[in-house]
Design a protein that fits this description.
The protein has 408 residues and is mainly α. The chain contains 14 helices and two strands; from the N terminus they run ααααββαααααααααα. It is globular, with a radius of gyration of 22 Å.
Length: 408
């Protein structure tokens, strides 16, 4: 088989493919180093954990390739049905969801009869955004009524936010932020966007006030959010830490900053992190701190350059995509990745309060890493269609849109 035939397996942006594979391979080293800490909190050896991570990478890359094979327009058409199914799973999670590793939030569902667990919130977040992009893409010329916009756009956003926010406030906030950005870019009526934002601020304020001052709302995490903010504002005040979970979070934040300082310019070397055993989430939420400690600011800079290349390739693909749905979906998925990367790194360097968001393509994990590969698969899906259109001579946004508008 010739090299030209082999490269066709990498459909879509070849540079993006190379960076994704490179980041996936690079992640094995810090995960292998940091996962030695998992021996103390989970069953299994370091080798078991890193092999599991490699398996997730392999499955993720295969899943990404499968996503590329399905026309993204079809995925858009199915997004509403998928979203409804995931909302039902979120309801189920609220009722019977399980905790993991001692966390106080019930975010996991387990497949009956197995030990395989997953978080529906990550999938619901992704397909909500895909659905919004699809809606805005096909409604751009039909001018839907205000009632239609409210029930078909704002209500789904609100429902997903509420169901996710019960046990994962940071993800709910990300869903809200990304959704508003998508609606703004997609030229959704400004008055409805402002009205929704104001309504959510009022409702959340009322909810927080009731939760903090009464016992009417059971099993809420408002006190946890309050403690984390207080810990961030005054991390040395031990009396502000209200729960064992928040003591761990506050402890993690301090150890992450120490690891970054310890790494310096060139780092301590692969596998030589001294603070990984002191970070309970060193292989996932705080993997960036371990990377800096072992590879220094130089290694962190290389990582950020690779992420930057991803965003540059996304922008190039958006510029070359003739369909509004495809362009809007790519920029929205790119924003999701950027927001998650920013939050993970910002927590590690103590710019924002501690929250549990993994670093895309680098952190150890299951659901999160697979969802990331699906996101990237959708981006590559669009870029592969753009390449096909360019080869057929209809890829220009100005001349090609009329020729292919029936695809949407």
């Amino acid at each position: 088989m010739s090299a030209s035939n082999k490269i066709e397996y990498l459909k879509g942006d070849k540079v993006l493919w190379i960076v994704i594979i490179l980041l996936s391979l690079i992640s094995v080293l810090p995960v292998y180093s940091a996962s030695s800490n998992l021996d103390h909190v989970n069953t299994g050896s370091t080798t078991t954990h890193v092999l599991k991570h490699i398996l997730f990478i392999f499955v993720g890359l295969c899943l990404m390739r499968v996503v590329i094979m399905v026309r993204y327009q079809l995925i858009g058409k199915l997004s509403l049905m998928i979203l409804i199914f995931l909302i039902l799973l979120l309801f189920l999670t609220v009722m019977i969801g399980s905790t993991i590793d001692g966390a106080s939030a019930s975010r996991w569902l387990y497949i009956p009869g197995t030990q395989v667990g997953f978080q529906p919130s990550a999938s619901a977040y992704l397909f909500l955004i895909v659905y919004l992009c699809r809606y805005l893409g096909i409604k751009r010329e039909k001018e839907p009524s205000t009632v239609e916009n409210i029930f078909q756009v704002l209500v789904p956003v609100f429902v997903v936010m509420v169901l996710v926010g019960k046990d994962n406030g940071s993800t709910a906030l990300m869903i809200f932020t990304t959704s508003m950005v998508v609606l703004f870019i997609g030229k959704f009526p400004t008055k409805l966007i402002i009205g929704f934002i104001v309504s959510m601020v009022i409702l959340v304020s009322i909810f927080i006030t009731i939760a903090l001052t009464t016992n009417l709302i059971k099993a809420n995490r408002v006190h946890t959010w309050k403690s984390r903010i207080e810990n961030y504002m005054g991390p040395n005040k031990a009396e502000q830490v209200d729960s064992d979970e928040d003591k761990v979070k506050n402890y993690q934040s301090m150890q992450a900053r120490a690891a970054i300082v310890h790494g310096g310019l060139t780092g301590m070397g692969p596998g030589k992190s001294a603070l990984k055993v002191m970070l309970p989430q060193s292989s996932s939420d705080f993997i960036f701190a371990i990377i800096v400690e072992e590879y220094g600011l130089f290694g962190a800079s290389v990582l950020l350059i690779l992420y930057t290349i991803i965003f540059v390739r996304i922008i190039i693909t958006v510029h070359n995509t003739p369909l509004l749905f495809g362009a809007l979906m790519i920029i929205s998925l790119g924003f999701m990745l950027f927001l998650q990367i920013f939050i993970n790194i910002a927590v590690a360097v103590n710019i924002i309060p501690v929250t549990g968001q993994p670093l895309p393509l680098m952190s150890y994990g299951g659901t999160a890493i697979l969802i990331t590969y699906i996101q990237l698969g959708l981006i590559l899906n669009v870029s592969s269609r753009v390449q096909t259109l360019n080869e057929e001579g209809i890829g220009n946004r100005k001349t090609g849109l009329q020729d292919i508008q029936d695809i949407a």
